[in-house]
Structure formats: C-alpha cells, structure tokens
Amino acid sequence: MMSAKRTIKFPSVLQNITVAEKLVDDVCNEYQVTEEHYGGLIVAITEAVSNAIVHGNQMDDRKQVTLSFDIVNDTSARFMIEDEGPGFDYEHLPDPTAPENIERPNGRGVFLMKKLSDNCVFTENGSIVTLDFNIISATA
Known about the structure:
Heat Shock Protein 90, alpha+beta, 24% strand, 5-stranded antiparallel beta sheet, globular
C-alpha cells in the first residue's frame, strides 16, 4: 500500500487551527470519510492542535506545531500532533466528568481525544499525541 503521508508545520497561533481543519477536510474528502466519522475526527484533531498551541508552546509564535497524517492500514488513518513544549503529565489529569469539574470551561481536550479516536497515545512526555481513527471504508 502506498504511503499517503502528509506533514504540515505552522506557528503557534490559534488562527492556525484553520490550517489543521483544512488538512482534515482534504483527508476526509479524499478518503470519503462519512459525516458520522468527520465530526469526531475534526473535534479530536482541533483539540490536539489547540492544546499544542496553547499549553505545549504557550502561544509562542516562534515555536512550531507539526501535524502529520498517514494511512496505517486498510481501515485506519493516523494523525500525529507535535509541539515544542516540555510535555505534561497526561496520566494524572482531572476527570472532566467529575461533579467538581463539570462547570469548568476547559480541561476536556484530552478526554475528548480519547473518546473520539480509536486509539490515543502520548509520547515524548506528552509533547506528541498520536490519534488513530478507523475511518477508511473499503470503497476508498
């Protein structure tokens, strides 16, 4: 199977979330991703990119976010989001569904990434998140 790998890099400013959305849109069009899968995919990727910009790179526009896409196998697409920050303790995050956190306006990104992707893995101390989605149909 031929690699479909694509990588884009952009400065850490929130407006660049649209760059990530464009890549997701292109991939979804190319692989005929269903609308049902598109919603979860776009939310998970934009959450990861937003976290990389805001938390990882502290909105320092001299630091880059790298977003990569590739096809893993006949059914799975993989997105990797990497920032230049020190990482974070992804194993001990407050539960956003706990009563004391339910009203908080933030703190749901990692929870959403895990819920919406088929596999969510943090590496490099949390500065890289890999999200796998079983979105490729047999007809693509």
